[in-house]
Amino acid sequence: MATIAIEQPRQRRSADAARGAKRVGLVLVGLAVFWGLWEAYRWIGESLGITWPFTVDEVNMPHIHEMLSAFTKPLQPGGPTLLHYEWHWALFTAKEAVVGFLLGGAIGFGLAVLLAHSRILRRGLLPYIVISQTVPILAVAPMVVVGLGSKGVEPWVSVSVIAAYLTFFPVAVNTLRGLLSPDPRSLELMRSYAAGRNDVLWKLRLPASLPFVFTALKISATACVIGAIIGETPASIQDGLGGAIVNFNQYYSTAPERLWATNIVCAVLGLVFFAIIVIAERLVLRRAPEHFA
Amino acid sequence: MNESQPAVSITGVSKQFKAGVTALTGIDLDVRPREFVSLIGPSGCGKSTLLRIIGDLIEPSEGTVEVNGKPAHRARLDHDYGIVFQEAVLYDWRTVSKNIALPLELLKWSREKRSARVSEMIDLVELEGFEDHHPWQLSGGMQQRVAIARALSFDPALLLMDEPFGALDEMTRERMNLELLRIWDASGSTIVFVTHSIPEAVFLSTRVVVMSARPGRVAAIVEVDLPQPRTGRTREEPRFFELVTEVRERLAAGGADLVGAEAEVEAS
Q1: Is B139 among the domain residues?
Q2: Site from A188, A200, A284 to mutate, B interface, most B CB atoms within 10 angstroms
Q3: Are B54 and B72 in contact (CB under 8 A)?
Q4: Tens digit of pLDDT for each residue in A236-263?
Q5: How many domains does chain B fold into?
Q6: Which pTM was predicted?
Q7: Any idea what DSSP says for residue B224?
Q8: Under an 8 A CB cutoff, do B141 and A194 touch?
Q9: Cα B203–chain centre separation
Q10: Which of B256, B240, B230, B191 is nearest to B41 (CA)?
Q11: Are B45 and B213 in contact (CB under 8 A)?
Q12: Full residue range of the structural domain in which residue B189 is found
């Protein structure tokens, strides 16, 4: 019998830990390099007076340490620090994004299951699903906010709907692809068992689609955060990161580091969403290593 | 099941594909219960197509197929046969045990009955200790044994095998041949076996159906009178070589291009 390489669980765990540490190290090195490049460009730019593509100065490129120290300074004299505010804005935006993610994910998934079962629906509906994504979200957002607002829906729920609008598309398209991915032999096997449509869906198509679904969820995890941030603007929501960005935009020339600090929080929020999906994928998928991107 | 009634009865079966290709013409064949029948032939002789027609995976253009005395369609709905393909077609996300249990789940067996049956099948194909492995952790031969265990798990009277060992190396293949004969003996099933290999067909079968191509038809049927049970020694007996030669000559008489036979792509 051919020998099969099966690692001992203990070995694998320590190998995983080593790989994890290496990854964290690489991320830190990457951040350090970025920091260095940023400060170096600013130093050179200011020394040479570079004006193209933008003037390098205090306003356009604040020091990174200034952005970070902005978190610890009070927003108003004697008030809580910027970090305190950012935390609450981030939580508020995260709530909108999570609801949008779940809503969009469910709609996208349901749509994919529906389309997987009907060639006619695929032909008829798919173009409109694609068109829906060619309409700029900035144009859709006010319509959703005003439309739902007139029905008495809370503004933050409208923002979630906008986040869902960005979420459902990758989920629908990738899940559909996953549901249609089983090879003819796998389907023939099911046919030999006289398996019904539901059995084929639950025992074959859905499990086969999971790697595709997780790819979509990773895209959607960051897209729903962007959707929530953008959606807050027309909804005039002041409690989230989108509201904060609009606000700090107005004071950019005097306190650019606050906008930059908020950008960092937005990025971190997106990364946290992404990481949660990656962890879920590791827990759910038991596949050959090559299935993991 | 009535012992005198054929396990498979094929009458006047022809198959034309949409492109106008005639894959099979005028096939008549009866397979008795407990028989091991091999279908052998060159590329495009329609042997895989014939196997799929028996399994009601494709429909014949003409003629009828009965399995256990009922129409092939009814037999498929009644789970009268298990099938093994050239690739193991295991579901990656299922462990060995769960792959074997797949048809039992579809048949709504209880959890206890399933796990009892799965451990019987694990014993039968000698995969003890690999129950919780995933398919991608197994060698090709082991994967194929899982596929056989899965096909036999619900105790079908008929086992259809489409070049099940075609992707294995020669040594693994010979060992799997012996395994299959042991399993055939232990399970009491009837086997219809598609292969490219003349020695494999002779070694395994009670009868070898020699097919020829364009259009696919039965060129000859060779009774294999080698004593049972077959062992590693069987391959060294003079009678074995005589039968191999006979099958080869029948294939040649049927116009078989043996060189091209390895690269068969069935239009199925």
Answers
A1: no
A2: A188
A3: yes
A4: 888 999 999 999 989 888 888 889 999 9
A5: 1
A6: 0.81
A7: -
A8: no
A9: 14
A10: B256
A11: yes
A12: 8-80+156-267
Q: How far apart are CA B200 and CA B244, in angstroms?
A: 9
User: What domains appear along chain A, each with residue ranges and CATH number?
Assistant: 35-69 (no CATH), 87-287 (1.10.3720.10)
Residues of B with CB under 8 A from a CB of A: 52, 55, 57, 76-79, 81-83, 85, 87, 89, 91-94, 102-103, 105-107, 133-134, 136-142, 172
Residue in chain B nearest A188 by alpha carbon: B57
Cβ-nearest to A207 among B87, B91, B136: B91
Over chain B (268 residues), the average pLDDT of each successive run of 10 is 75 84 86 92 85 91 90 90 90 92 92 92 87 89 90 89 86 85 87 91 92 85 86 86 88 62 40
Question: Which positions in chain B touch A193 (Cβ < 8 Å)?
Answer: 79, 102-103, 106-107
User: Do A128 and A205 touch, CB atoms closer than 8 A?
Assistant: no
Q: Is residue B127 part of a domain?
A: no
Bridge partners, residue B39, by sequence: B194, B209
Alpha helices in chain B (DSSP H): 47-54, 72-77, 96-106, 111-124, 140-152, 170-187, 198-204, 238-253
Amino acid in the structure at residue A96: E
DSSP string, A88-109: HHHHHHHHHHHHHHHHHHHHHH
- Starting at the edge strand found earlier in the chain, the sheet holding B62-67 runs B22-31, B8-16, B62-67, B70-71
Q: What is the CATH number of the domain that holds B262?
A: 3.40.50.300
Sort out which chain A residues have CB atoms less than 8 A from B93's CB and list them. Answer: 207-208, 210, 285-287
CA–CA dist B204, B199 (Å, integer)? 8
Decide: residue A89, CB within 10 A, 0-12 exposed, 13-18 middle, 19+ buried. buried
Q: Do A186 and B89 touch (CB under 8 A)?
A: yes
Give A-chain residues touching B57 at CB under 8 angstroms.
188, 191-192
Are B142 and A204 an interchain contact pair (Cβ–Cβ within 8 Å)?
no
ipTM of the complex: 0.85
Helices (H), B12-139: 47-54, 72-77, 96-106, 111-124
Residues of A with CB under 8 A from a CB of B: 1-2, 4, 6, 183, 185-186, 188-189, 191-195, 199, 203-204, 207-208, 210, 285-288, 291
Mean pLDDT of A85-97: 93
B253 belongs to a structural domain:
yes
Nearest-CA distance from B65 to chain A in Å? Answer: 15
Tokens of B91: 């579901």
Q: Mutate one of B53, B81, B89 to test the A interface: name it (highest A CB count within 10 A).
A: B89
Please state, in angstroms and rounded to a whole number, the distance separating the CA atoms of residues B107 and B79: 9
Supply the DSSP symbol for A79: S
